[in-house]
Design brief:
alpha/beta, Rossmann fold, 2 domains, 17 helices, globular
Length: 423
């Protein structure tokens, strides 16, 4: 593992807390294991409690703003967060020099703070998880053209004020390059699951509540994640209606695992369609319980139509050997081709047909599950992806320190090459 003893990495996250941000939690774990000193500026949340006394980790928490419901509400939320984060960043840097500042985005509003950090001698790395223009387009059917132009402008401003970028797939990498990022400074680090948790779940799969699930239903279909509007979870409910009511498959139960802004609407939709007996809402689960639920299911389902999004749920399904049915969009295909069944985007009838077909072919489910499980273990698991993450941090820290010492500035890529070659 890359040695980061003596390196101080600070991370800023806005739209969720550290305790809820699965990607940042994995990054923090990797940094601490590599000997790094880590600080996280995050909204205050009870979910942060397990992290507050971790050796080597400092949390600087601020009062969480009111979550925005409208475009104006989101702007107020982001502005309030920035006003509360900025003084904590300055306080932290005065107390102990930061080597690398990691900005977790969206939103693309941190570039003034990134420029301030660079003037203080801090190397700035962007961790881009989603693209704001695409997310807004999915959430709001008639986003004004002017607003979209502003969002693209913000992307370009961000790339002009950071030293390097991480992102989760090749689609996003291409977009960041088109926004002005240097290709050699943009690295893909996928958000794969942690192998140890997958193994523990696979050894003891269970559906803890309600205990009668397997007595009453012969097949379990699982969906997992945050229930945002862009996730189109309502399509899963439409598939359930087709399977249960149109085709008389009352032996199938759909487990919608997670929570989010659409949860209440989904519950109401389930009641209106008479699906209460066949749609189960277990709520938000920690990683181990989530993987146990998934390992005990028969098929996973994903209904995202976003070609730029790498669905974490798909990697989690594959990691426990769960085949999936999903819409055939770019990044889903790159993950799941050969380990699931993909259908025309938006075609819920086709999704329902393929789902039932897979439920009725247990040997095919086993075959697809083996392909997916091996793909995660050999390529997608966090243990594989974290190597790139830590090497990137090491190169940035080395480049920043050489500048501070008064030596000629090298690019982060050059510093990483020197480090790996032993020069």
């Amino acid at each position: 593992m890359t040695d980061l003893h003596g390196v101080h990495v600070a991370a800023m996250v806005q739209n969720v807390s550290l305790g809820v941000d699965g990607r940042l939690r994995k990054q923090v774990d990797s940094l601490l294991s590599a000997g790094c000193q880590v600080s996280v500026i995050t909204r205050r949340d009870d979910a942060n409690e397990p992290w507050r006394n971790r050796p080597g980790l400092t949390l600087l928490e601020y009062r969480a703003p009111v979550d925005g419901e409208s475009a104006a509400g989101h702007v107020r939320e982001y502005a309030a967060s920035l006003m509360r984060q900025a003084p904590r960043l300055l306080q932290l840097h005065r107390r102990e020099r930061i080597d690398v500042l990691q900005i977790c985005q969206p939103p693309d509003l941190y570039f003034p703070m990134a420029e301030l950090a660079r003037r203080l001698g801090v190397v700035v790395m962007l961790d881009q998880r989603d693209l704001m223009p695409e997310t807004v387009a999915q959430r709001f059917s008639s986003a004004p053209a002017r607003a979209m132009q502003v969002l693209h402008w913000l992307e370009r401003r961000t790339q002009a004020h950071v030293d390097a970028s991480l992102t989760v797939n090749d689609y996003l990498r291409d977009r960041l390059i088109s926004s002005g990022g240097a290709p050699e400074s943009i690295h893909v680090v996928r958000n794969g699951p942690v192998l140890d948790r997958l193994e523990r779940a696979h050894e003891a799969p269970r559906l803890p509540t309600p205990p009668q699930i397997r007595r009453d239903f012969s097949s379990v279909v699982a969906w997992a994640g945050k229930m945002g509007r862009q996730d189109r979870v309502e399509d899963v409910v439409r598939v359930a209606e087709r399977v249960v009511h149109s085709w008389g498959r009352g032996d199938v139960v759909f487990a919608l695992i997670g929570d989010g802004e659409c949860l209440d609407e989904l519950r109401l939709m389930v009641d209106e369609l008479g699906l209460r007996e066949n749609v189960w809402f277990p709520g938000w689960l920690d990683d181990l319980d989530l993987y146990r639920h998934l390992a005990a299911a028969d098929v996973g389902i994903d209904t995202s139509l976003q070609p730029e999004v790498t669905p974490v749920k798909a990697m989690e399904y594959l990691g426990v050997g769960l085949p999936l049915v999903a819409y055939d969009v770019q990044e889903t295909r790159r993950l799941a081709e050969g380990a699931g069944v993909l259908v025309t985007p938006g075609d819920t009838d086709a999704l329902a047909r393929e789902l039932v077909g897979l439920l009725d072919r247990p040997m095919e489910r086993v075959r697809l599950g083996r392909v997916g499980r091996e793909r995660v273990r050999s390529q997608l698991a966090w243990e594989r992806q974290s190597e790139v993450y830590l090497e990137t941090i090491a190169g940035l820290a080395a480049a920043g320190r050489s500048v501070t010492a008064g030596r000629p500035q090298r690019s982060p890529a050059a510093a990483r090459t020197d480090r790996s070659s032993g020069s």
